[in-house]
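Team,

Forwarding the record for the chain on the shared tracking sheet. I've put the sequence and predicted structure together so nobody has to dig through attachments.
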Amino acid sequence: MMQVQSQEDCVDCLVAEILACYLQLSKIETLSPSPHVNGLFDRLTEFCCQTFDESVVDKVSTARASAQLLNFTYFENYVDLTRMEINAVTSMTRGLRPKQFAVLGSGPLPMTSICILQSLRTEAQAVTVHNFDHDPQVLYSDSDCFLFGVIDDLDPQAISMSSELCVKLGYSRDEMDFHVFDVLSDQCDMLGFDVVYLASLVGITDDEKQKAIHNMVKQMRPGALLVIRSAHSLRGLLYPVVNITVGVTSMGLKPLVVVHPYNEIVNSFAILKVVG
């Protein structure tokens, strides 16, 4: 006779699955891409992208297994996510394609920026993506492009490698440039940007995320769009969950759209308009 699995058993199985993935990942010296590492993250991502009852999600989310889960990026996820975001952005701008983008928290490999250019780059319209990150060792730029940071501390090899990567991909400095910038502590003139992206891992806690959003909004022009990446359900084990209903109106933001994918795309996103 087939036994029906109780909800409690289901929760236990979910926690066990997460712990198993975490324990295996914690024993690996480096999380550089490899068949074994990729397989573990594929397993975790597939697991977290399933749809569960809200009570199950709440119980699993409080499990200790979620405390130290590591983030891993998938290029196809970025391609699909960015395509969805760009389509949503252009629908909010009545078909007018933005030309000036800023990506805050672009990281050592600017996949979002690359995907933006791939989506919008045409012979008829120039698009520029400005990448901002607080770690100077993953950025390239000429000395006059650095907005913050001590230039003498930069690693010339890292700068050279990043620059060569963008050149090999066919991107000029007019299409993609880089700046050292800490969104949690620095301020920068964002008036020239049509769209500003806030990456998922810029500000892990609620307070840090709210501070990052506040710092950006007061530097942006009215009418510009802010794209905030988030997560929902068990996907919050992979990326921080952002509640855009808390305090955004008082910051001068108007929420336009919130998207929670239920397919293989991991991230959610929200688009907000600066109203001053």
